[in-house]
User: Fold these one by one.
Assistant:
Number 1:
Amino acid sequence: MRSPRRLGDRLFSSGALAAGLLILVVLAAVAIFLVAQSLPALTAGGTDLPAGFTSFWSYVLPLVFGTVWAAVLALVIAVPLSLGVALFLSHYAPRRTARALGAVIDLLAAVPSVVFGLWGITVLAPFVQPFYTFLSAAFGWIPLLAGPVSGTGRTILTVAVVLAVMITPIITALTREIFLQTPRLNEEAALALGATRWEMIRIAVLPFGLPGMVSAAMLGLGRALGETMAVAMVLSPSVVVSFFLLRSENPTTIAANIALNFPDSYGSGINVLIATGLALFVLTFVVNAVARAVVGRRGGGKGL
Amino acid sequence: MRTGLAITTALTAAAALCSCASNETGASAAGTSSSSALQGTISGIGSSAQGSAQDAWRQAFQQANSDVTVNYDPQGSGAGRTAFMAGGAQFAGSDSFLKPEELAGTFKSCKPGTKAIDLPDYISPIALVFNVSGVTSLRLDSGTIAGIFSGKIRKWNDPAIVALNKGETFPSTTIDAVHRSDKSGTTNNFTDYLNKTAPSVWPQAASDVFPFTSGDGASGTSGVVSAVKNGKGTIGYADLSKAQGLSIAKIKVGSAYVAPTARGAAKVVGTSPVDTGREANDIAVKVNRTTTDPSEYPLTLVSNLIVCQTYADPSIGSLVKAYVTYATGTAGQQASAKAAGSAPLTGALAAKVAAAAATIR
């Protein structure tokens, strides 16, 4: 049986519906804009592209590679760090310390990326350069670390460190909440069986939090994929596929490439840049879909 | 006597009235030519290289003409030319002059059937800055510069560099050549210089995007300067005005080595040929990169104002004319030299630009 609906109810529900639809409309509008503006670029020939590129795909593929490569390197650095910080906050630190430290980490998330960029070029890059020289001299036989080492330190590894610092707060904040939600009984049962604190975390906390950890990492990855200013400022970019971590010649990311080249582009050059933006749109969409699938399959909802 | 007095009084009064009236018309006439007719807003879009010069000109011009607003948005040369052609801006600032295919198109702000003209308004020498421990002075010829920036010369103690710098000792440090990672008119002028003077090492034509993937890229002039300053064994190119505190290389011109100066930059632009086959007032200077006169510095950037010869709206035309006349005139060029460290237009070229500016309608 349905009770007669009042005016206030109707207004509120239609307002909420409109707000929900608006998100879809905005997303659709962005997608339509990107596709419409990209179409001329997909068939662009040599004259519309920067010198040295023959087709749009040969231009966009290195950019997609660079975007994923920088973000993955950042994740490799940020995920272990964030999990360590989150576990410390949730299971090791005294409550008062945990609260203060948590606030500091949230503050780190509020620093604008341009500030991280400035820090990257003026402090971090000159600081790590001698270390890179040493690393390449000592471990140059590892292909990733082969020279010649960049004289300015503005390499993809430095960018990955900057990105890692930027995404650590997000991953830490989310995983801390997840670890705190571990059922008390599971933890106490593990301890009652004679587990040490680390064993308790391994058998009770981590398995419970796994889907949440995956989705937290994916959110961090999403931020790293789209990060623009810090990469544009710190990286010494080229449109190439290269795995070397310490050289001057680094693959650049889509977002940074757009930021650097848009101001002086015109005509079909703008279409080409927008088409690379479409590629980034699709890429983040795929990453999000994969993340959802992972979380869903592992019985999401328990964690996040 | 009485009548005489009366007549005199009447005459004086009349004269006073007359002078009063003529004063008034005189005042309004003067007003028409200086401030009250100059009223309105003009907007320009374009090169960021001349951005700080434009700021200086706008400020002074708006102070002298309180009813005028001049906007300048340094979005970039390409964006400026596109917006100007589409009618979105009344003038453009561009590091390259109008291309023939652009001249063949239509200009929305201009009177139908008329074309736009280029007027050089900003000259700036580009300095080669370097940071190599133990090296204080550096002399390079264009072939060596091209070798360094294309990645063919990799070490500071390369024989090609040592041969040009007798008496200087170089470390075996790897050369880290820093270029602009964003599109830029500075890169365009730098690559044009290398292409014209060392075509065998640098066959790529001038372009806004640095043509090699090798080397270190940094965004903006400030990015290049900070990368050179903070790096090891670095060399880069940047506007002379932004190169303070860094060592600056001398480049070979003729048989001498020349450091960048405002005077040398102005001189090379003054003696450079103007692209022919254009309208009489279209002054498209092609900088003479291969000059052998050691009082000239050929690694120089010239930025242009792009304006209509005749505007569709005459009131806009008179505003642009006044602004361009000021900016390219002695006072304006001194102002930009002070604010942006540019080289003032001089001599025959300044006179030519002034004559062309006077024909804007």
Note: The CA atoms of residues 32 and 38 of chain A lie 10 Å apart.
Number 2:
Amino acid sequence: MNKRLNIKFIQSFLKTIKNKPLWLIDNLLLELEISEKELFYILTIVSDIYTTSGETFIDYEINEDKKEINFNLSENVSEFLSINDGELFNIFFLLSTDANLLSLQEENKSIKDFSNILANYFTLESTDYDEPLRLPFNDQLNVIEYIKLGSSNSIFYKIKPITLKSNSDGIILEAFDVDENLIKSFLVERIVNITDDSEYLESSKIKTNTIKVEFDLLDENFLNKLGSRIYKCVEGKLYMEFYSYENALDYAIKNLLFLEVAAPSDLLNDINKRKNNLMEML
Amino acid sequence: MKNVIKRSIQLLNLVSNNKTISTNEIKDSITDYRDLSDQAFRRSFERDKSLLRSFGYLLEYENDKWGFDQGYSLGGSYVFNKIKKEAKIDIDEFIANYLIVKKSLNLEIEELVNPEILSKILLATNDKKRLGFTYLSKYRKVKPQGIRFHDGSWYLAAFEGQVFKTFKIEYITDLKVGNKENLFNTTDEPFNFSWEDSKSFLNICISLPKSLYIANKSVFSHKLIKHVQNDEIHIRTSDTYGLVKFLLICDGSFELLSIDKPDLIKEILDE
């Protein structure tokens, strides 16, 4: 099964069939983007649930000749349907920042109204995106120009977007790297361009090696900020591993008030060289 | 997997529509739980609760000693429930529009902010209740005003006493919402960080490839005064430490054209 069949998907399924109980099976599969096998898997789950008053949560009838399915929903389904705050927040954030969704609001008044209703409940400011976030990703392939952390050179990736999420580094696009056959994470703010195939250069990719770094800890309070990051701290020394040299360099520069690189010496020399260069320019 | 999804639906169904339900009622109402020993039930229930939590459905135990209805209720859908109850709209149409927006995204969105913390902040901001939490080892009590997105991170804007502050949501733990409503007013003023009120600005002009500026601009707080076509950028900032980080990261790719207070940067480099 391809689709992630979880409680969130079941909620979406119920929201879809609630207002329109009669469906051509093919249309329903298209709407839900699932296979027939997946649809029947869901139906076996939901039709086996009973409400506290003993009635079936969802009943259905299939007309084999017309290839139709007719749902009969218990009144409890309306009460059960909900959209949680996290989901609404994600949608509201993207409605206010994503270029595609901003134009959708201009074309469709009811979507604009939907956005206005949400605006009454979310007090949200964003100064990072003076221009709307540009994520014109479709479900086909995209070529992105990306600058990795700690690097000043662009790399082109041919990707298929999967998920937008966030972690301590910012908003992350998880996407399938077509050439390397791997799922990778890209920081949205470091995607500097979305291009066509002509600019795509596979040769620009460089294989990276992990690197272990020893830091002198300059401020013990910094440990509170490490969250879920894996590290070892012994007698004022902090030991961390990074997936690339560039990543370690970026981390060391961004935290230079709290940490000082002790080893490897290449990294320490690189930072000192950068400091000297800047000092000379001033 | 099938049984887990089934139990999750049954659990949500039991607590939907603001119902509060006791642990015993939960055990009796769900077939999979009914025949389990108390210990096995506890384990299974905790697992299911934590699975639901990961999807943003918060099964919370109401433990108010003066309350009448003690037991589990469903949290995490504060905004939807409020819209359903208060807004004069067709909730089916609201859901239909939600589905249109979601479908037009073409990609899945996972949580952008911790849903449990977000939900409590929303509840406290809208109902004007106090929030208590631990922030980098120190306990704080604040009057929340809203959320701000900046530098790739989420911040809670709130008054601590009479002082307006911003707290990085990532560092907030043990968040609790007070009981009393309408304790304060919310402000319409922008949620400024302390450095934004600073009077000591530094002006710098550099020549740097646009792509490199875009990729690294969130490293420091600044105002872009002018971006000339030949990659010349004029910046005004009071975040000198952030500017140093930005310049060190872009080493070798920029040319310094002018700066009005170089000593501020030299001081940091000399430390």
Note: The mean pLDDT of chain A is 82.
Number 3:
Amino acid sequence: MTALPTAEDLKAQIEAGVPGAMVTIVPNGSPSAQDSLLLDHEHARAVALFLRDHPDLRLDFCSLVTGVDWLDTELTEKVKVKKLAAGPDGVETEQEVEETRKTKVPGYLEAVYHLFSMEKKHGPPSLPVVLRLRTANRSDRNHVPSLTSVWRSCEFQEREAFDLYGIVFDGHPDLRRILMWEGFEDHPMRKDYVPPADDILLEARP
Amino acid sequence: MFGEGILQGLYETARNFFGSYVDKDRLVTVQYPEERHQLPEATREFPFLLYDGPDPEAGLRCVACQICEKECPPRCIHIEKSKDKKPDFVGKQQFYPAVFDIDVSVCMSCQICVEVCPFDAIRMDNEYELSTSNRFGGLLYTKRELAKPNEYYRKIHPTEAAETDDRRAKEAEEAKAKAAAAAAAAAAKAAQVAAIPAVAANGATGNGAAPKPAEQPADKKPVNQ
Amino acid sequence: MTTVAELERRVEAGEDGLGDILEVSMGPHHPSTHGVFRMDVRLEGEKVVRLKPVFGYLHRNHEKIAEHGAYLSAIPYTDRLDYLCSMTNNWGYVLAVEKLAGIPVPERAEYIRVIVAELTRFQNHAGLVGFLLQDMGASGTPLMYAFREREKILDLFESLSGARMMCNYLRFGGLRVDCTAAWLEEVRRLVAGLPKFVDEFEALLRTNEILMARTQGTGILPRELAINAGVTGPMLRASGVNYDIRKVDRYGVYDRFEFRVPLGDHGDVYDRYMMRILEMRESLKILEQALRGIPEGPIMDPKTRLRGLRPKAGEAYGRIEAPKGELGFFLISDGTGNPYRYRVRPPSMINLTILEDMCLGHNIADVVVILGSVDIVLGEVDR
């Protein structure tokens, strides 16, 4: 059994193997040491095929697909700005003033794929290769490409991410709700989901 | 031979059937409710509150710290803290729960309240015949229904209870010694200043002193063994 | 045979003269679906031409509940995923937390984990085979024998953890309570008697002509499809793929035990049935070795805080070989006391992906058998 290449090696291999692919390494701060690779939408399928069919990698087993919701955040930073201000003697001079600046960072939805190799059985320790796809925002531009055509195991799990998070997987053969019922409107796993009041139970109380 | 497999299966069935008359391992059925299993000591059903001594109000170990309320995964515990305080088993003034409700229709018997309780106040019962005809009130247990004496705990979980009792007796002893030392120091100090008699701190009362066995609440059936 | 697409087109066009196309909703209240599971089946005569699994009837958003609670309070909820195998569910979750927070586990705790996990695997497989045979018409008898042995294992679980099915026994960093020497002696006594049960259980129907006619060649799952569809566990190994996470990951102390990974040849229902029997034997082997080698010592990592655990921001994926396949937990921590993202990889749901592929072209009666051989528990499929 061979060890899996590091995230940096994988990035280099992908960029050499799939021309034009943009791969960003997303570091992982926990002791698990499972770094992930952020892919661009355009080449995601080509990268997936490359990883699956590469003779040394053979990541033929897509174990886990899931959505993650990252809310809009407000980044607060202190910046030093030069400003004209009146000094104690009444003369206006340029001075450095500290200002807090708030920038809105738009949130996004993320599809995370965990890959292993059944053929090569990398490891131990057998670390997953983690792929991430991000949507542009959380409301209208919530599309990512589907990888179901590469790994069949994504079929139900992408449906689940669609159902619970509202990520639309382009190219999925059968993108319907899977756990909630047809006609349900919201996406219950989102962080800002407000559950409806439990009227049925309240009515039942004597 | 065709049919051999079926014959072999029939042979196994016959072996099990006749074996069940002689081999205890082949017959594990218990004719409930006429016969009952001896419950293992670890069995847990729903939580109850422990009290020391004869009075469930005065002896209640719970100090209304509300840790169990926060940690309970299905949030089935409801506690309201008292306004005043009463002494606990080492004589320290503590709050007590004015209201302590557990909705056992929500409770999932996970024992996390027991694990997180730092005061040995909540433990798991092994009473399992809890059916009631009242769907809402009947399964909402109040403080009065939940409180059970330490003797009951010793009966259903002897090993665990012995450990707890030993630990608490030791704690009470230490607290007593500490109080005595403090009192002695205070007395010495007082004697130095003037000849005013020192008032000794009230000694601790605890379960270490083997309290009288208390009656069980009248509305509860005795434990099924 | 008419192609599915062709038939669908004709059905949707409302074409007349399709008297032999029948749409059947199997379930959700059907005794053979192992819970509230529904299959939208289209039949041409008795042949299945389309099958869509429908589930979610038991959906309670387990993941959301866990994200709202502390790390500790998710453990009792994992019991309720695959409610037949609470011990292995606990293990999958605590393994992920241990990876996330870098928590070591004492050796004795690892051994007891192996013992309870293999007992769980044994009782799950015994129960599954019983249910599978029940689905095929062997009413009651094999299931009763399986449940008789399962009963003994559950009694052991009760005297160890306090509950028969919802054990809530494992903790990150170790176990909740230690087992006594008397308990270990009980397990030894039980494990000594179980090979006899497996022999009898196997002899009961292994060579039964009716069973062979029903199962051999039914629901064949080709090797390549099994890998691509992420099928795991005994289902995958019945198709001949040597992939057992106990061997690949060597989590816990599994590298210390000698055991084989049984593999199937054909990937049909009969292979899956035999796979469970063979895995029960391997479990017994592991149990014997674990019971021989169990050391004395602590069962809990002293530095771990159960209440108020706050792992560093980051993520981890932990997985184990559960009786039904790869059970994984994916956790993202943002440094607070509850997980930012908590995700279960449910083996029984993902194993259902290829249900349609296995059933196409078979008789409707075989659907029951094929579904039975997948081994699903709806508590885990729906979460």
Note: Chain A touches chain C through 38 residues (CB under 8 Å).
